[in-house]
Amino acid sequence: MRLTIEKDEIISRQEAIKEETIKRGKQAFLSFSAVTVFYLTGFHFIPTERPAALVIPVEGPSFIFLPKLEIEHAQLALVEEIITYPEYPGDQHPMEKLAQTIKEWGLQKSSFLAEGGSYGSSMGYRGPALKDILPEIDLEIDPDPVEEMRMIKTPAELDLIRESARWGNLAHVLLQEYCAPGKTENEVSMRASQEATLAMMKTLGPAYKPLGQAGARAGFRGQIGKNSALPHAVNINAVMKEGDNLVTGAAAGVGGYTSELERTMFLGKPSPEQRRYYGYMMEMMEVAFDAIQPGRPCSDVDQAVRKIYDKYDLWETWRHHTGHALGILGHEAPFFDTGDQTIMKPGMVFSIEPGIYLPEVGGFRHSDTVFVTERGMEFLTYYPRELEDMIIPV
């Protein structure tokens, strides 16, 4: 059982990005992304207003650039050097310190394959682009190289996502067990999440490293009753009542990776109308599963589901595409969307989550995590999906 990505695999990722850098005719790779830092060094941290950067030269030592408050934590990073600055904004702006460091390392006239030209944050960061400080630096901006590497999961990554699904499954079992009229979404989700997390910690022991979202979790995000018709609702501590649709979500963080499990449940016997829309949603799931084939574009999966919307005249209930990739992040590229022509390849991991949303009735959405194989797809999540299993007696 794997609970983290091993050092050898991380080093192989660095070699792969060096090869891509050479292929582009560049001398070094640069990224300001915390996700890329984690993927290429194994170091997970919380990005804030304080800039961070990773530099991997084709020849010579790599370094990570971070605020001093991360220096002890950053010892986990698989890089040759750790460069720190005191604080942001500080007496010297961190981007000026980064430019100074690049000069000191003799890289200011190098050409870089860069995921971006500046640090970005929604936490109040303000600062210049690197090229504004180092006009002589050559940056080829391309946000995609590492993202494209992340699309194909290795066996070790699949193991972590599978382990995530295992504990998300337990959290959801408990969530369904504790649902009842009069209960609030917070008391049910917190109880289920805590109990599943405690079981997870006890079972996996000290080898468990979440490297991100800790433990197992399951909840509703406000999608209870008529509010379940809001695909991206927010927690409102809704009170459950008999007859409600309950749209759920469950996962667990394992080694920096996650999964996605969602189900539509019913408190008490569903009405004929609820049964009918549930059946439409299940038909969409099945055609999506059938459409997942290596060598075909991602758009094919969404197109197959759209035919069910056509068949039953359901376009008023449509809100989003059929699914998305996931792994380190809950949403990654590529997407099961008519506009995404990315070719499906073995090792890609996706959610399958077509939805039906009726404001006066509720929402109907399952989500399963699957991966593309040489012949089709396999499930990573395995929670029951049939209607009778989704009915909670009252």
Q: Biggest sheet: strands, sense, closure?
A: 6 strands, mixed
Helix count from the secondary structure assignment = 9
**Secondary-structure element string:** HEHEEEHEHEHHHEEEEHHEEEEEEEE
Helical content class: 25-40%
Q: Return residue spans where pLDDT drops below 50 for at least 5 consecutive residues.
A: none
Given the helix and strand composition, which structural class is it? alpha/beta
Strand order of the largest sheet: 4-3-2-1-5-6
Report mean pLDDT, rounded to a whole number.
Answer: 97
How many domains, as an integer? 2
According to CATH, the homologous superfamily of the largest domain is Creatinase/methionine aminopeptidase superfamily
* CATH level 1 class label of the largest domain: Alpha Beta
Number of strands: 18
As a percent range, the share of strand residues is 15-25%
**What sort of overall outline do the alpha carbons produce when their principal axes are compared?**
globular
Report how far the terminal alpha carbons are from each other.
Answer: 39 Å
> What would CATH call the architecture of the largest domain?
Alpha-Beta Complex
Q: What fold name goes in the CATH topology slot of the largest domain?
A: Creatine Amidinohydrolase
Radius of gyration: 23 Å
